[in-house]
Amino acid sequence: MSTDDRIVIKNLVKGFHTRHGFTTVIDGMDLTIADGEFVALVGPSGCGKSTVLNMLSGLDTDFTGTAEIRSRAPGVHFSYVFQEPRLLPWKTVRQNVEFALKATGVDRSQWADRVLPVLRRVGLAGFENHYPHQISGGMQQRTALARAFVLDAPVMLMDEPFSGLDEFTARSLRQLLLELRSQEESKAFVFVTHNVFEAAVLSDRVVLMSNRPSTIRRVVEVEVPLPRSYDDPRLFDVSRELTHEIISSMVSTDDGGLVVGEEHARLAGPQAAR
Ligand SMILES: Nc1ncnc2c1ncn2[C@@H]1O[C@H](COP(=O)(O)OP(=O)(O)OP(=O)(O)O)[C@@H](O)[C@H]1O
């Protein structure tokens, strides 16, 4: 850990009370992220990726250990982008982005100077006065990106932001995110995804999480300099390495399926775990 770390996760243990009792979901996680870094969290469904974002954002405070975004200046410490754009349907594109400024106490006199440039950056110039139902899903997610970037927060938390989009739209938004990132070199990103190629294209580091109770299984550095071309063969190599690592953590079941090793051990009992 260094004083430059923007995000600090240390000895993190998290569980939930359910009707079956207390279930540990994350059992000891350590990760630090510095300003300017882009880190993807990849792992099996239910391993706790969204829960990590919830703890970092302060939405969930019921855990032991550390999960914090360190602030060095007053103002908003993070922005959040979700899988669904979560726009207000009765507000226009411009008003949806303005709403983030209003909600965080930015004076109305600054709104136009901040909102119009960010709408241009995400490719929505000319659509300022459209309502969400008048634009495509991809454009709605561009609006969500604009709403997040307009806040100028040092940290961006992103929870599968492109997984609800068709592949061509998702690809153009990944490209957009790479561009936005290159314009803001000090922002730290935590990006949850199931898509290993997406993780490879966007990230500096990919954190592979094991299944519940989860820990960090491996951290893969993506040593491909920015700006990146989508078709760079080195990204395919990283993607293959990630896929191999995930597959190797899975075991075959009797019916020909594949499950994550830890899950198999849990289902099959102590014999299978050996
Ligand atoms: N409020 C809650 N009460 C009980 N269990 C919960 C609660 N929230 C999450 N969980 C459980 O914690 C585990 C982790 O959930 P989380 O949504 O963080 O996983 P995830 O890795 O993001 O999954 P996915 O990839 O499917 O989105 C899951 O098993 C989930 O059912």
From TrEMBL:
Origin superkingdom: Bacteria
Coiled coil: none
Keywords, sorted A to Z: ATP-binding, Nucleotide-binding, Transport
Record-level Gene Ontology MF annotations: ATP binding; ATP hydrolysis activity
Domain ABC transporter: 7-236
Alphabetical list of CDD domains matching this protein: ABC_NrtD_SsuB_transporters
SMART domains attached to this UniProt entry: AAA
InterPro entries for the chain: AAA+_ATPase, ABC_transporter-like_ATP-bd, ABC_transporter_ATP-bind, P-loop_NTPase
Stored Pfam families: ABC_tran
Record-linked PANTHER family: ALIPHATIC SULFONATES IMPORT ATP-BINDING PROTEIN SSUB, TAURINE IMPORT ATP-BINDING PROTEIN-RELATED
The protein, known as: ABC transporter ATP-binding protein
Biological source species: Micromonospora craniellae
Phylogenetic placement of the source organism: Bacteria, Bacillati, Actinomycetota, Actinomycetes, Micromonosporales
